[in-house]
Write a structure and sequence with these properties.
CATH class of the largest domain: Alpha Beta
Number of helices: 14
Low-confidence stretches: 1-5, 441-462
Number of domains: 2
CATH topology of the largest domain: Chloramphenicol Acetyltransferase
CATH superfamily of the largest domain: Nonribosomal peptide synthetase, condensation domain
Number of strands: 17
Oligomer: single chain
CATH architecture of the largest domain: 2-Layer Sandwich
């Protein structure tokens, strides 16, 4: 270890990191916010070059070597070269059912609690399960990485592998992690932060109270219910055409249609319903080249108007979505403080819609398939759409608390048919309420399944 890193200053945590630190303090013995991906690599891979690429990746991605400590001034972090994860290479081909064995190993690793002060926070494995098949396993903690950060790491690993084989390199080296912390500090001290604060105060002023969870009282024990409905042939093409007609990208159309379906029983003309959306918050930021925890979670306020057509709803809600993104850097944790939440409390992020338009990494001479094994706990009711960036290979996952069994069943039965109707050529001129009412499937998932308390807005408190 160099003197530079031995003497490096301990840096403050971001608001997003502090949220996960607080969760760890409340639940130190539970693996609540582990994140893990598995990349299945199939083909004539050069294992020596692959290990070299992953080893170089581990040195470049500074967040994989973060160390945390607590003290009188609160938690602090710094990059510690002694924490750079070594690549664990293991050939399982001679074991019975090698892929099943590898899957058990990964599941056991994910199930272990991570002590943020004492434990290595990352694992980097390369498991050979066949003559032409490897499983690359990357595990960390959400305090280090979000899903986009994992995607950055995957793409960089593929670029380093290509470079090792003499091919043209892809994405360049990562920027230092400290650059993101500096940028975030400057934003919070600048005028844009104040403008964003005023925007969100206005957005939330007239909506019903947001549900709030006490962190120490969160019930993570029951396993979530899950469903993965089959999507009909042709839905991807319908979605692409409808997005072009609406003048927006297919991820935005999918987000808005999902939100409209979630709010289908919300009374027309009533104050809007918050539907929570992850927002990557990387456009125009140094974080576009830094794996880190950057993602924000923000409320899209969804409302229906009497007699409104689908086209009018999409135009109006698309403008709301664009406003969310213009002011999307304003942290939800700060928003919670603005609304009067106390330490140990957070918003109940349900219902939530997440659209993941990520391509798997490309390793020359091989095919690669990315699989999310762990993404931390979810609240209430969650719709997750995944696809390649061009919209192909679209898939839907529905996750919810066990108390929300009816909501999962309703979504599995009725959401996809609604999307197909809404993407039909004549749908834009039809009333949205009519499209939603066809084959209606029970109550909408608008209410928290776990115990959550409402909290009055700042305006009501003063």
């Amino acid at each position: 270890m160099t003197a530079e890193f031995r003497d490096a200053a301990w840096l403050e945590l971001t608001l997003a990191q502090l949220d996960f630190w607080e969760e760890f303090r409340f639940h130190p013995d539970r693996p609540l916010s582990t994140v893990a991906h598995c990349i299945a690599i199939e083909g004539a891979a050069d294992e020596v070059a692959l290990v070299a690429a992953l080893s170089r990746l581990a040195r470049e991605a500074e967040v994989l070597a973060l160390r945390f400590r607590d003290g009188p001034g609160g938690p602090r972090q710094r990059v510690d070269p002694g924490r750079i994860p070594a690549v664990r290479v293991q050939d399982l081909q001679r074991t019975p059912a090698p892929e099943a064995r590898a899957r058990r190993m990964m599941a056991e690793d994910i199930a272990r609690p991570i002590d943020l002060e004492r434990d290595p926070l990352c694992a980097l494995w390369l498991l050979r399960v066949g003559p032409r098949r490897w499983l690359w396993y990357l595990r960390g903690h959400h305090i280090l990485l979000d899903g986009y950060g994992m995607s950055l790491i995957e793409r960089r690993a593929a670029a380093l592998y290509a470079e090792a084989l003499g091919h043209r390199a892809g994405p360049g080296p990562f920027l230092p992690f400290a650059r993101y912390l500096e940028e975030e500090t400057a934003y919070r001290a600048g005028p844009r932060h104040n403008r964003d604060q005023a925007h969100w105060a206005g957005v939330l002023r007239d909506i019903p109270d947001l549900g709030v969870l006490p962190k120490g009282g969160e019930d993570y024990a029951p396993p979530p219910l899950a469903a993965a409905p089959d999507l009909p042939a042709g839905l991807e093409a319908q979605l692409q055409q409808a997005a072009r007609t609406a003048g927006m990208g297919w991820p935005d159309l999918l987000t808005l249609l999902s939100a409209a379906w979630i709010a289908r029983d919300h009374p027309a003309g009533a104050p809007g319903l918050p539907v929570w959306l992850p927002y990557q918050s990387r456009l125009g930021s140094v974080a576009a080249a830094i794996p880190a925890l950057v993602v924000n979670i923000l409320p899209l306020i969804v409302s229906h108007r009497p007699g409104e057509t689908l086209g009018a709803f999409l135009d109006r809600s698309g403008q709301t979505l664009r406003g969310l993104r213009r002011h999307g850097r304003y942290r939800v944790e700060q928003m919670a403080a603005d609304r009067g939440l106390r330490a140990g409390e957070r918003f109940f992020f349900s219902p939530l819609v997440n659209v993941l338009p990520f391509d798997p990494p490309e390793f020359p001479g091989c095919t690669a398939q990315s699989e999310v094994l762990a993404a931390g706990p979810g609240d209430g009711f969650n719709l997750t759409w995944s696809a390649r960036s061009d919209g192909s290979e679209l898939a839907l996952s529905i996750d919810a608390d066990p108390a929300s069994a009816g909501e999962v069943a309703a979504a599995a039965r009725a959401l996809v048919p609604f999307l197909a109707r809404a993407c039909a050529p004549d749908a834009r001129d039809r009333p949205l309420a009519e499209l939603l009412a066809e084959h209606s499937a029970g109550p909408a998932p608008c209410h928290p399944a776990r115990t959550a308390r409402p909290i009055a807005s700042r305006q009501e408190k003063t």
